[in-house]
Amino acid sequence: MFIEYALGAFIIGGLLGFIRDYKASVKASSFMALIGSLALLGEVYNVYTNGPQRIDLYGIPLHITNLSSVFLLIIGIVGTAASLYAISYMDIFEKTGKGWVYAIAYNTFLASMALVVTVNSMEYFVMGWELMTLSSFILVFFSEKARDVDASVKYYITMHFLDTIPLFLALGTAYSLVGSFENLSFDNIATALASAPAHTKIVFGGLLLIAFMTKAGIVPFQFWVAETYRAAPTSVSAVMAGAMEKLALYGLIALVWNLVGTSYYLGIAIALLGAITLTVGTLYALRETNAKRLLAYHSVGQMGYIWLGIGIGMALIPKGGALGAIGALGAFAGLFHALNHAIFKSSLFLSAGAVEYRTGTVDLNELGGLGKQMKWTALAALFASLAIAGVPPFNGFISKWLIYVAGYQSKDFLLAFGAVLAAFISAATLASFVKFYGTQFGGEMKRYEEVREVPGTMLVGQWILAGLTLVIGIFPGTVTGILNVFNAPIEDGVYRIGFDSVLFSPVLFIVLVAVLAFGLYLSFRPEFGKEAKPWDCGATALNEDEYRVDAEGYYIKYEEKIGSFYRFGDWFYSVGRAIIHYITRAYLWIASYFVKVVDTPYTRIETLDDLRKGQVLNADEEVLKPLIRFLRIAYDVLPGIRLGTFVVIALIVVGAVIGILMVL
Hints:
mainly alpha; globular
């Protein structure tokens, strides 16, 4: 029932985009997105109290399982905070005049994510996945800046080659097994795969794995993440990093693990990919000076932690017994960290967006001294920074600790090595966020003395998430019932290992509360005495802004020590970028000839009225009406992208369809 209310709210939110006034359109549609996100949380409670639900949504079969409810919880929490935040934040894009594009794309984005985790049929899963990719692509280049447009096109082409095409080929494989698009439910596919040859399972699972690794930004498919999250409006970046990339984890569990099955070697491979990814992502974040790119690299790193936990589960659960219980604990920890990461990473993006809202920049070298003017934003950023670093009593500590414990107790060298590496890299995460927080909110900067705190809706959006980092950290039992889909021995896990013995020592609890209370007092206490400038040893020409260490200088000596790692990593990134670059050029070359054939004069769409009235069809459109009409409208209502680019996208989709026909 609640899922229907949520989808209805998202549809209304999209329709509200046709309000002509930009601010009214964005605020009304963001409010409906907020209502829809809250309805998703209602569905989570419904499943938790009444069990899994089966719904026929106008012919689309939905099966809201316990696993689905975990990801609806993630989408609901992040969507609620980001939508409330966007009511004020999106004002900075008023010059684009395209509130209707945001309204339709943003609500479609949230709705498609909800569909992906609730549909019970492969074809609708792929449809929802593609809708999610298309809507997020539109949101990424919303600002229309040349660099952002470039990032969005590379993102979309990357997704189509490494995400969409593998999914379509997997869909074709499923069809060849089941024999009908009407019977492509996950249950039927699982039954067909049970008796399928081993090579068919490998092909099906491998295609899915490539698609989900790409969406999650797992090494070596992480090269698109940093620029995409930087380019998108920050409220959208929060949803992409907090919710969208988690759907790759849902696909890994629901489709690869549940349909194809798992084994020790597959689990080891997933865990090692996670260990490599958390290392690469975190170390690259350490040297980043753009706040949003830094957070994007940390998204890559934290997804590595999640895949490490899930990999431990996939490797050990089939063994059964004590090792199976440890595997269940590892998988539970991975899922727990997915929720925690969604919360603290979204909070961090919203904090960075708040700074951008008031200063116009996310360059850490240009920021400083904002802690005095933006105290509540600074405190929210501090909470989230401590959470991602795994510092107790915040939520990141619990899930990271359980991943470490599961790896240590696995009695497997590779899994234990992954856990040790993850624990070490967590220290680098803390160092990175010392820079992230200190360069923005520490020190003094004259140019920002007149900056004030952000509007209330932006603050509340930040604090919904920042508050949860502390609440879940101190009371993890509030979410363990929803998260425990693997039947993990959490009585010997969260409550003993992660809570009683570590967090819920009464003395330690009192000390932590006292420290937090004292920190709040220092942040908001009345100022007494006189302010004095730092002593500059008699130098008279020294600019006060030079008293601080900029972001580039924070860990420069450490970066020099591991320069060989960065050189290898840069080469690896350049290979990925080169592949996408040359694929794009090849398709643009093909598209140039395609455009010559179909490009005839047409009436340009300048306004929404023109769009409503439609266009006069040309002769070529009579032949290729659906495709060309879409390309025409897309070109006109989304300026800044050449027609050839959209033709490229269409050709990629056509290529995927041809691939399916070849499989069939």
